[in-house]
C-alpha cells in the first residue's frame, strides 16, 4: 500500500492530545493468551490488554491502551514480585514493562536492534533468575537487567550459531536450559561469560519438546508426544500422559500446571495429580493457560474468558473476566439511542464470507454493560455483516448475515428472515449450477428511509435491491442491464438521501444510485463515465450540505449535490485538492478508504487501511486530527467502521483489535436553546480537559465573561457543542470564580444564560 499521503500531512496535523480522559475503551477480555501467578494476585492477558485480580479482596484492575499499555499482539506475560514489575511480550518483539508506579516503559530493542527478520521476533516466554530476565524468542534468547530494564546480551543458540525458536527457558544448579523448536534442549553454564558464543552451548537432549520448568529442584519438561517428564539426573521419566500436546507448562513453586487445549492438570510436589479439569459446565471451552494461587486454579480459555475454581474441589467455576463484548475483532458497530450493537462476523475484500463465522453479537447499555448473545441463540445465522435500527422503534434492530439472510430483533424475540419466509419478492439465495437445493442468502447494506421502509442489498442475484415496506410487504428491484457485474453483484453499506435516493457502493461497479419514485431511475457512477479512481467503492457518506463523499480502494471523490440525481442522467465527481505551500495535492491520493462518517459540525472522519483515522474539516481543506496507534489509544490502525453518537458527540472506532471511542464535541445542533448544558461544572483543580457547552443551535453565538462582565471567550458554534479551554482568549488560565455564559441563536430570536464555576 502506498504511503505518499504521510509525507504531506505530517506538516499539517494537529495531533491528538495525549489526554486519555477523552477516550473510552470497549475491549473484550474473553480471549486469554496467558495466565500468570503472583503470591496474592492472578494476572491474565488477552492480545491487547492485561487484567489482574487480588486474591484477598477480589479487586479487579484493567490495563489497556486507554490506561497507557499499548501492545501490538500480546503473546506472554511475567510478573516479577521481587521488582514489582510486569513484563508483557508481543509477537513483534515489543516488550512493555509496567512499573511499580503504574507507568509503562516501552522497549523496542528487539524490534530495532536484533538483526533478524521481523517475523522472527516473537516473544515466547520470560524466565526470571538472579535479577535477570531471560527472554525466549523466535530467534534465540535475550537477557534483560530487571533493575535497569536494559538489555544485556542476545544468544543465538542454534548448533551452528543460527537463530532458532526458543520456546521456554529455566535454570537449575546455575545452568540454563532452553527448549528449542529444532535442536532439542540446549544448555550452558551461567558462570560462563561468553554465552553469546554458540560454541559454549551444548545439546542436552535431541528430542522434541514444548516447555521446561524447574520444579522441586528438578527439571520437568513437556514433549510433543503429549507427555510430561521429570529428569532424574540420567533419564527423563514420564509423570503425566495428557493425550494432547501441551500448550503451557507453569509452576508457582508449590504446584505444577500442565495446560492442553482440552485439559488442565495440577500436580503437587510429589508429582501426583491433585486436579484435572476437562470441562467448564455450560461452556464449550478450549483452554489456553492456567496457574494456581493460594489454592485456587485460574484457567484461561480461547473465547470464554478467565475462570477460577477450587484446587481441592474443582467442580464450581466462577467467570472473572471483566465485562466486555464477545471478542475484540469487530466488523460493524451501530449506536442506537440507548445501546451499542457490535457484530464480529465478516467477509473479505472480495465479499467472500468463507470460512463461515459462527459467532454471536454484543450489545452494550449503561445499566447492564455488555450482554453477549451467543451463536446458538441466533437461529444459525452465520457471518453477520451489518446492523440497522428502526428510528421509529429503536428496540427493533435488524442484523444482516452474508450467508443466512437477516435477523430481526424485537425486544426479547429474534426472527430469521431468508428465502423461505419472505415471499416471492423477498430475500433470495444464490443459485449453484447442479445444486438447486443450495441455500446461500447474502444480505447486506441495511438502511431505513424516512417512511420507515427497510432497504437491503441481496448479493449474487439479479433483483439485488430489496425493501421491506413499513406495512410488512417485500418488494424487489432488478439491476439487469444496469451493472456490468450483475451475476456476481456485491454491495456495501448504502446511504439514503433526503429525496429517498439510494446510493450503493458496488464491488467492481462503482456507485449505483436508485430512486423508485422517479420511474425506477438508475444512475451508475463508475470508471467508464466518471472520475472514480477505483472500480471498488468501499463506503459512502452524505454530509449536511447534501454532498456525497465516496471512499474507494484508491482514493476519495465527492459529488457536489445528491439533488443532481433528480435532473441529470450522468453524474460527475471530483477530488478534493488541498494546498501545502506551492504544492497542490489530492486529499487521500490513492489511499484505500475503509469508512467515512460525518459529525454534527459536518466534519468528516475518514479511516484508511492500516493508516488510522483522520478528522478533516467540512470541506476537507484542513486536517484537524490524525489518530494512530502511536499517538492515540487506538488498538489497531485498521479502523473498519466509524459510528458517531449525534447526541453526545462520542465517536466510536471499531477495529480488528477492539473498540475505542473519542469523546468528540461535534454533536448535532438542537432546534432551540432550551436544553443548553455545561459540563463539567464545577471545574475542579485536578481536571484536565475543556469545558463543553452542549445543546446549542447551529451557528449560535457564545460569549463567556467573568462575574464583572469582562469578556474572556467568544465563539460561534458549528453543530451542537463548543469547547472552552478555560483561558482568556488562549493567553492565560482564568482565575477561580463564577463565569457567565451568554448564548444567542444565529437569528437573535432565542437566548439563554448559564453559569460555570472554576476552582483553581
From TrEMBL:
The keyword Signal applies. It comes from the Bacteria. Gene3D superfamilies: YVTN repeat-like/Quinoprotein amine dehydrogenase. InterPro entries: PorZ_N, Quinoprotein_ADH-like_sf, Reg_prop, Secre_tail, WD40/YVTN_repeat-like_dom_sf. Keywords: Signal. SUPFAM superfamilies: NHL repeat, Quinoprotein alcohol dehydrogenase-like. Residues 42-202 form the PorZ N-terminal beta-propeller domain. This is PorZ N-terminal beta-propeller domain-containing protein.
